[in-house]
Amino acid sequence: xxxxxxxxxxxxxxxxxxxxxxxxxxxxxxxxxxxxxxxxxxxxxxxxxxxxxxxxxxxxxxxxxxxxxxxxxxxxxxxxxxxxxxxxxxxxxxxxxxxxxxxxxxxxxxxxxxxxxxxxxxxxxxxxxxxxxxxxxxxxxxxxxxxxxxxxxxxxxxxxxxxxxxxxxxxxxxxxxxxxxxxxxxxxxxxxxxxxxxxxxxxxxxxxxxxxxxxxxxxxxxxxxxxxxxxxxxxxxxxxxxxxxxxxxxxxxxxxxxxxxxxxxxxxxxxxxxxxxxxxxxxxxxxxxxxxxxxxxxxxxxxxxxxxxxxxxxxxxxxxxxxxxxxxxxxxxxxxxxxxxxxxxxxxxxxxxxxxxxxxxxxxxxxxxxxxxxxxxxxxxxxxxxxxxxxxxxxxxxxxxxxxxxxxx
Length: 409
Ligand SMILES: *Cc1c(COP(=O)(O)O)cnc(C)c1O
Hints:
The chain has 15 helices and 15 strands. With about 400 residues, the chain is an alpha/beta fold. It has a 7-stranded mixed beta sheet, sandwiched between helices.
């Protein structure tokens, strides 16, 4: 057997894999890794057909969506899912409202403008979320000009860690005859979303966030009402690869466990998708969100112990999927590199207004079931702060985690 070059052998022996704690991609479960770690299967393989069909059924459960809703899974990411929603639902000159809570809401607004929509944005200062009253006032103003086609919002804006409550927004949209569309990329499977109960029209995500897969899949569930809106378009059809009408027979076939083809799905990821969805749904969607809430609450205590303040300005706006944390006085972006030197990868800032003032730690999916990972993350942040010359109580921060800091658990 050929010997590995000396340096590679050395690296493999001594350097443990860093822990990936960014807001996607995330650490995935061993069962998920096992499921996709196979030679590429055909999109017509029985195993892929079964995994695809089962995934569509499981998505309705996770989304808490009605039986008549339509799940879609495509090769792509969160941005492709956003584009698909916009391209199918919105035609030029139509009026839409965007609730803007940061970087990804601005991206959505730009997509809508490119689609030719008349876009009104309700914004709030960084770290804030517009109130239901402000949003309703904007809807009233917009409704005076004519019908409103859609209300678009980001459930958790990954650039600020601000989490909006989608329920009142979905209800407001209904009252004003608009479709409600939510970017749930950083929220699905971490924050509660009740598609049927709230009568929401579209909830989208990507595989590399709390869904717990590698990047590569765009996922969404669409209401009957939204499907009807696509069918009754007046003007041109959407680009083919984004067009629901192209994909509906494909999704239908997979759900009936029949082979079909329009454009090749990411077959390895499809094999892993039902594995992750079953893990997420093992105790029901509520239990999974409760776990995110419990760990996020424990982490908030630890961050507080370390003197780290969240970017969201009110407790009810703080997401359970990630922590966006302001650098304390005297600390700058070099902290992220020092945390990496401790073996944990976290993310820098993303919102253009405060980019150099904060960092982000993702806490979604599999890592929540591994207290050792949570503990390692807090220790790395604490040691990195201490390495910057601050008086830091590393043990105190770990103790603040309570049961989630118990590496032996
Ligand atoms: C990550 C993210 C996106 C973009 O997803 P990509 O897969 O990177 O295209 C969109 N919206 C939100 C809220 C996100 O967190």
